[in-house]
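Quick one, T. Sequence first:
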Amino acid sequence: MSVNNNTHYVDLDNPDENTGGGNMFSAVDDFLERTNRLSKLTMANTDLLLKSLNKKPTFDSKTGVLKFKGKDIGFKTNKNQAELLRVVFNNTDDLFREWCWDEVITAWGDEKFQRDDKKSQRMIYDAGYNINDNIAKKTTVNDFLLVTKRAVRLNPKYFT
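Structure tokens:
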């Protein structure tokens, strides 16, 4: 290798002279091979992560666990939140149907609720609000359930 006015010239006919005895091209090849392997591993891990994050949400009514965005979000099975999730996840053929308060009360099958009772409606509204709050704490999603003054339903955008 010769130096002239701060310009380096590489002798391609004698690569060992350029690297002090090592083969510069094999070092580059080794680097590229390792980079390629690392890239493939990163892509595979990213695919696995995306698959776990993009899975459709599920709710296990026996354990009270909602699986959503790669997280297990627990709800006490004897509380209104788990009961509301059980109702909205119960009909897999019509998962996005809107559940009016009286339908939820009927599905709960609890005689302490009355269809026109404002207290009963408030309990269901609060359960939906608290479900969204618990989910938001773990995933930052705050609209898993669409809750209105009259009804509740699953938000379809998390099931595509």
